[in-house]
Amino acid sequence: VGDHAAMSGFADRVKEYHRTLRPKRGDEFSMQQVAMFFGGLYAVIHLLQYFDVWTLLILASIGYVLYRQAQNAMQMVSSSGEDAPVQGSSGAKAKTKAAKGKVHKS
For residues 57 and 37, what is the distance between their CA atoms, to the nearest angstrom? Predict the structure, then answer.
């Protein structure tokens, strides 16, 4: 009779330990993330047929720098594009922004 209670307590501890080891709901990867990972892995392996590792690393670094430069340039263009109509003869947009500001203050 004593062995049964000890085994039951041990089984409960093992179940609880197993439950804590399971990944949380938010820790799982989405299908898009998995697909992008394998697509990138395939692209790297495919490019290794034509370039060595160091050349790929250098090209990837240059590509990343150019991407960031283009992204910052597009952000600058879009932010300067938003400022121009507000400064022009469009008073209606300024009034709606002021009205929205008042709503957020209260």
Answer: 17
- Please write the tens of the pLDDT for every residue from 28-38: 889 999 999 99
Instruction: Give 11 or 35, the one with higher predicted confidence.
Output: 35
Q: Each residue of 50-75: pLDDT tens digit?
A: 999 999 999 999 999 999 999 999 99
Q: What angle do CA 43, 47, 51 make, to 5 degrees?
A: 155
Contact 19, 11 (CB under 8 A): no
How many angstroms separate the CA atoms of 106 and 104, rounded?
Answer: 6
> Which spans in the chain are helix H?
2-21, 31-47, 53-87, 91-105
The dihedral of CA 53, 57, 58, 63: what is its sign? Answer: positive
